[in-house]
Amino acid sequence: MSRAKELTKQLLRQFVDSFDTILFDCDGVLWQSNDVISKTPALIAKLRDMGKQPLFVTNNSTKSRRQYMEKFAKLGFKVSENEIFCTAYLAAIYLRNILNFQGKAYLIGSPGMQEEFKLFDINYTGTGPDPVTGEVEDWVKIPLDPEVTAVVVGFDRDLSMRKLTKGATYLQDPKMPFIATNTDSCLPIKDSQFLIPGTGSIVSAVETAAGRDALVLGKPHKFMVDLIKEKFTLEPRRTVMVGDRLNTDIQLGKNADLHTLLVLTGVSKLSDVDSNLESSDPTDRECIPDYYIESLTKLTEYLSDF
Ligand SMILES: [Mg+2]
User: Where does substrate bind (predicted)?
Assistant: First the structure.
């Protein structure tokens, strides 16, 4: 396994000719929180002019596709809703199309997930604040909903011991499906001393208490790519995955046999690529991007001559 190649202007023709479809992670790639990364809306427009199909794949479970559309528009991107694949949507479509789910989901999740669940006509309970009361001895009297037939976990700003207790208790039924949107450990927060726990921390808490592993839908798992293939022509060897995180974005590229480009405007640094090369874990050693570039701003500038 060799080190990733820097995507230079000299390699641009070879790179551009290698793909028809290009998957973009969003945070740390196209924007950082609410700030657009310079020139990325022009990059998307340029790629369309060149006949390439851009698609957007994010593990963030806090927004519905409609809410993402609003964010894209606000930041100056021209994107259509069917080009967006977020994990709130993945969870709803998995329940509806794969499980043919007819029951009620216990949802540790966000308003964005509720919106997608409503669109797919999926019954759910559990959202919103559910604070703990009383002593631990009283928690065994927490009312449970007998209609719950699945537990779904995404990002939930209202997470509480009461929600964890309910989730883990429902999962004592070994036949109860247990689905998680993603397992990103923390939220990408720019220029801050704070480390904000991500969905992965919530999923781990439920898994540990329940003694079961969740089925994870988001990157690096292939479900995202399988879903895209149902809507778009996606030839893996003619597709590139662009991301800022090695263990989700680039690993998805590896799992789905796509070309990969790491951008250095988000979570992973070049030193992380080197750490992966030297890792004792073979999965890490495989998780090396084909190319890296400082930012998509630079790629836009290179492409302006095309
Ligand atoms: Mg990212």
Answer: 219
Contacts of residue 255, Cβ cutoff 8 Å, sequence gap at least 6:
220, 221, 222, 225
Q: Per-residue pLDDT tens for 108-121?
A: 999 999 999 999 99
pTM surpassing 0.85? yes
Give the pLDDT confidence of 187-198 residue by residue, as tens digits.
877 778 899 999
Q: 184 C-alpha vs ligand 1 centroid, how far in Å?
A: 10
Residue 65 has pLDDT above 90, yes or no: yes
DSSP string, 162-197: HHHHHHHHHTTSTTS-EEES---SB---TT-S---B
Taking a C-beta distance cutoff of 8 angstroms, is the pair 233, 21 a contact?
Answer: yes
**Cβ atoms of 281 and 275 closer than 8 Å:** no
At 2, the pLDDT band (50, 70, 90 cuts) reads low
Q: Judge whether 284 is annotated as a binding position.
A: no
Q: Which domains does the chain have, with CATH numbers?
A: 5-59+219-303 (3.40.50.1000), 101-216 (3.40.50.1000)
Is 272 a residue of the active site?
Answer: no
